[in-house]
Amino acid sequence: MKPLYALLFCTLLNLNEFSAHAQTAFSGTVVETGSGEPVPGATVFIEALQKGASADDSGRFSLENLDHGKWTLEVRSLGFEPLIVEISHPSEEEAVFELRASVVQSDDVIVTASPIGRSVQYQPAQSLSAEQLQQRAAPSLGEILDGNPGVTTRSFGSAPARPVIRGFDGDRVLVLQNGERMGDLSGTAVDHAVGLDPLAMDRVEVVRGPASLMYGSGAIGGVVNLFSADMPREWDPGSRSALASHVSSMNSMGAGLVSTRYGTDRFAVTGRMIYRNGGDLTTPDGTLPDTALRNLSFGGGLGYRLGPVETGLSITGMNFDYGLPEMIDDLNESIEIRMNRLNIQSISTMDMDRFFEHAELRMHYSDYSHDEVEISRVPQGTVEEFVAITFAQQTLSSSLLLRHRKTGPFEGALGLSFNRSALQLGGGDALTPNAAGTFLAGFIYEEIGLTDALSMKTGLRMEWKDTRVKTNELFRDASIFEDRTDLIFSGAVGLNYSRSDRFTTGFQVARAYRTPTIEELYSFAPHAAAGSFDRGNPNLQNEISLGADAFADYSGERISWQISLFANRISNYVDFFPTGETHQPSGLPIFEYGSKDAILYGFEIMAGLRLSRTLSAEAGADYVRGYEYTGNRNDLTFIPPFRVYASLRAEQGKWHAGPRVRIVSRQDRVAPNERPTDGYVLIGADAGYRLGHGVTLSMRLDNLLNERYRDHLSRVENRNAPMPGRNVNVMLRWEF
Questions:
Q1: How far separated are the first and last CA of the chain, in Å rounded?
Q2: Lower CB count within 10 Å: N or C terminus of the chain?
Q3: How many helices (H) and strands (E) does the chain have?
């Protein structure tokens, strides 16, 4: 595939012709009205050219190769009123655009939702800027996103917390890094962590609902795309550096970041280092043993641009050790995961004056491994270690996107993708046989302007997927394995109606297709790190999902709201459920993978109200219902309960502060052998202050009343162990 991509890219280079019009870069800065503080992540967009850019940490942006003349520019950022201005390019002075804070949720361009990078939506999506990520500072992605509309977290201690979207977990929710699959194992088991530290994330985009066209047939629940600045994509000449620290009282955690970037007109280089260290979690009943974590990660990259061509390369690495709160009676025994990940990524883009006006080529390589180590401490102080399971996975992937210019009412893109992975397992309790997987895919995506207000999207993805099962130390009989080859077709059709800038509504119907994982098919071993004996089912069939999304969004001067409805009917849905049996001699409860026909449906509601110039309020609710629609019509496991949340925020100039509350109902619609959980109320507060000169301080108080509760998605086997108690988070960042 590498030669094919190289040939395609070289062909595109040869087809390129420079425009006859005079072109230069248009640069500027986006700041907040009043304080003059930069607005990182703000999007700047010229609708007539379908050309845009995002502001960096200092609020600066650059639109490369812009024709001289007059243009209408749209400047938008989440939490600010949109700004539409006429510009004249070139100009003698660098432009400064001021945005006014607002409760209105702007329709920020979310590139994860559309291959043509437009703000038109056909399903609910949300983005979090660098500043919002700082305000939600936490040691894991799941904790940061928990509480977003339709997003909960799979809890198993702090380190491996991973987002759950609309009740979908595992590889039904794809977690990407800069648009490519990460190559870690966080989607395969509850004890596996996401292989990127939150301090390395500059932006996070969440797409709720099937997003299988661009990223893979299994993305039934949605996509979470993590963006980092390790690979320079947009920069200004000069240097830019940052220092950040994060401390948490609940586990005596401290974390620090050092990052820097230097750029010229054509070239840029970046580097960063992150260290994080935290102890055991504190609950209202005391500490939760074996939940400490330690993390050292690094990243660096190069960027180069010349005319219409931009290319970048990054290398990142992570060494992550963390404990797991497994159910072991002996306090002198514990389990620890020791993870290492090396990631190499390259993204190259080119603008062209042809039918295909934009090309993007992504290359990605990941070398991931982790050991699950059982530790015994004897009275004499000797420590004995037993490596229960070793995982090693190498992943190579690549994607090519070709976006064509608008032709009549049609605007869209073609895409090709390739992924090759090899998984090896070892240790005394190897969970599955080894496996090698390959998929080749192509998709076509078109948006059709039916009227000025109404547009339609259509898309089709064809994917060839091949899985080869191989023997290892504990799985030696090759005759019980079966290789699988599938030709998969996924598709979507959607409508978007925008009556004005204030109101939009969208609808999508999508067919997604997921093949069972090697863990679901062949697991048969104690998985002490996850607190279960896992039993697979080699007879599982492929999942076929038919999903529908509908949403309406209104943004006014004082009021904003969004309502989202969804439903998924899934044939051969693979569920991981407790059997009620105990495996001997490990003493672990037996969990089994089984197949059933299932329905999941629900809603999300959000509303915002500006009470005065300085005071605003937000409220929302979400709900998921999941059950079998054939057979005994049992409920599905680990379905999040109904939630209501509200917050009040006072903001003036450089500071903001306000309380928040989350009310979670009892979950008693549970699967056989699954225990219900009681409802609870959590009260917290947020505050922040911009000290000037690039220094920002954020504070967050969680579980103010030290409420004793248990989250229904917690996988801690000791059902009497409560969730974390009162916690104070403080995040300080200095950009210079």
A1: 43
A2: C
A3: 5, 40
Find residue 662's DSSP bridge partners: 645, 682
Q: In whole angstroms, what is the distance from residue 260 CA to residue 301 CA? A: 11
Give the count of beta carbons closer than 10 Å to the beta carbon of residue 538: 14
User: Average pLDDT over the chain, rounded to whole?
Assistant: 89
Q: Round to whole Å and give the CA distance between 249 and 237.
A: 40
How many residues are given for the chain? 736
Report whether the peptide linkage leading into residue 585 is cis, meaning its omega lies within 30 degrees of zero. Answer: yes
Q: 602 and 623 in contact (C-beta within 8 Å)? A: yes
Please provide residue 490's backbone torsions phi and psi, each rounded to the nearest 5 degrees: -125, 155
Is residue 224 a contact partner of residue 174, using CB atoms and an 8 Å limit? Answer: yes
| pLDDT at residue 10 in the model | 46
136: DSSP letter: T
Please provide the DSSP assignment of 428-488 as one string.
Answer: TT--S-EEEEEEEEEEEEEEEE-SSSEEEEEEEEEEEEEEEEE--SS---GGG---EEEEE
Residue 196 burial (CB count, 10 A) = 25
Cβ-in-10-Å burial (0-12, 13-18, 19+) of 398 comes to buried
Q: Are 217 and 333 in contact (CB under 8 A)?
A: no
Cβ proximity of 603 and 622 under 8 Å:
yes
The 10s digit of each residue's pLDDT in 131-162 is 888 888 888 999 999 989 999 998 888 889 99
Please confirm whether the linkage preceding 90 is cis (ω < 30° from 0).
yes
Structure tokens at 168: 């979908």
Distance CA 163, CA 154 (A): 6
pLDDT digits (tens, 9 = 90+) for 174-203: 999 999 999 999 988 888 999 999 999 999
User: Average pLDDT of 640-653?
Assistant: 93
Q: Tokens 């960027």 map to which residue?
A: 303
Angle at CA of residue 357, ends 354 and 358, nearest 5°:
140
pTM assigned to the model: 0.84
Three-state SS for 113?
helix
161 vs 194: CA distance, rounded Å? 8
* Beta bridge pairs of residue 496: 455, 506
For residue 456, list its beta bridge partners. 448, 495
Beta strands in 587-639 (DSSP E): 588-610, 615-628
Tokens of 266: 């054509």
Q: How many CB atoms lie within 10 A of CB 182?
A: 24
In the chain, what's the furthest Cα-to-Cα distance? 81
Element (H, E) at 11: helix 2-15
Helix (H, G, I), strand (E, B) or coil at 33: coil
**How far is Cα 222 from Cα 572, in angstroms, rounded to an integer?**
19
- How many angstroms separate the CA atoms of 27 and 93, rounded? 10
The answer on pLDDT for 106 being more than 60 is: no
Residue 4: how many other CB atoms lie within 10 Å: 12
Give the DSSP H or E segment for 674: none
CA atoms within 13 A on the CB side of 551: 27
| Assigned token pair, 207 | 């797409």
Which pLDDT value is given to residue 237? 87
Paired tokens of 647: 């917050």
Amino acid at 376: S
Paired sense of beta strands 95-99 and 23-32, if any? parallel
- Contact status, residue 540 vs residue 595, Cβ threshold 8 Å: yes
pLDDT band of 108, cuts 50, 70, 90: low
